[in-house]
Specification:
By secondary structure, the chain is of the alpha/beta class. The protein has twelve helices and ten strands. Strands 1, 2, 3, 4, 5, 6, 7, 8, 9 and 10 form a ten-stranded mixed beta sheet that branches. Helix 2 (about 60-75) packs across helix 12 and helix 7 packs across helix 8 (about 200-210).
């Protein structure tokens, strides 16, 4: 029986209020061909501020993944925070499921809102795949990239070789798109360095009901498309200044993928490892993420650096 009061729905409503209080407004844009994209955009964009696009990952809508960042960033940037297709209030009747399709939809949103010139793009996990694709497709429009725990350089064969906590795409789908409380607990276990324990099943079931039931088939297909025939030789080369942020104990996309991504981009990329954090660094270490993002996006670009840990010490 559904809960009479939903704590998750109430929290979702609180996030809406906080986004609005921070100077953003909820908009829905018809991109044509049966595709609708929802986004939070500035109520009054400032021509003196740079544009920053924040792209969420799989698991919840944009508000849940970026809410800690909105107030600290709105004072320095014109923020655009979309729900990717099949998340939040965004959907499409089209059959495309690739990250390149998501990237085209996000760029269509920016064009619909008459965003001119270059923009910065930050993506978490799956959102990082989309951000990378935007840089590859619209290179001249993207100024700097922030890619957080995004396994862009994963290959299909990595799962067979035992790199991940799961043994198959089907198992990954069951955890990333949980339909039972036990699956949410498993998702928390691999996403957090210190996962919460003893969370009541009623709370987890509430989360599933509110966040994990819409567009379930389509989200499954997004994950399957991401994995199918994936190999680095097909990955487009980009040269944008890029900050790669990774949790030291990421079990979803292990650190090896961070190093691959750094090598793939080359000298224009900097890798920062956040200690005592897992995959969900936006939840576990939001202040550290904000610090690195603001420094990278606002400061003059430095000379290429070595990898460093979050305490600022370089490592070989």
């Amino acid at each position: 029986m559904p809960m009479c009061f939903s704590l998750i729905a109430s929290r979702d409503s609180c996030f809406r209020s906080s986004f609005s209080s921070a100077g953003l407004k909820s908009t829905t844009t018809d991109l044509g061909e049966g595709t609708i994209i929802h986004s939070w955009v500035p109520k009054h964009p400032s021509p003196s501020k740079p544009t920053l696009l924040l792209i969420h990952g799989i698991g919840a809508n944009a508000m849940w993944q970026w809410h800690e960042f909105i107030t600290p960033l709105t004072s320095r940037f014109n923020l655009y925070v979309p729900d990717l297709i099949f998340f939040g209030d965004s959907y499409s009747s089209r059959s495309e499921r690739s990250e390149s399709f998501q990237a085209r939809c996000v760029m269509g949103l920016m064009e619909a809102h008459d965003v001119k010139g270059k923009m910065h793009v930050a993506g978490i996990s799956y959102g990082g795949f989309v951000a990378y694709s935007m840089a590859a497709q619209y290179g001249e429009r993207i100024e700097r990239l922030v890619l957080c725990c995004a396994g862009i350089c994963a290959e299909e064969k990595d799962m067979e070789k035992g790199m991940f906590q799961v043994k198959s795409v089907e198992e990954a789908v069951s955890i990333l798109l949980p339909q039972r409380a036990a699956q949410v607990r498993q998702l928390m276990k691999i996403s957090f360095y210190k996962p919460a324990t003893n969370v009541p099943s009623c709370f987890l079931n509430d989360f599933i009901e509110v966040m994990c039931t819409d567009h379930l088939k389509e989200r499954r297909e997004l994950i399957e498309e991401l994995h199918k025939d994936r190999q680095m030789s097909d990955l487009p080369k980009i040269t944008h200044p890029t900050l790669i942020i990774w949790g030291e104990h990421d079990l979803v996309f292990p650190m090896e993928l961070a190093h691959r991504l750094k090598r793939q981009i080359g000298e224009t990329a900097e890798l920062v490892t956040i200690k005592n954090a897992g995959h969900a660094i936006n939840v576990e270490k939001p202040k550290e993420m904000q610090k690195y993002m603001k420094s990278f996006l606002l400061d003059p670009l430095p000379q290429p650096k070595q990898e460093k840990h979050s305490n600022g010490h370089k490592v070989d």
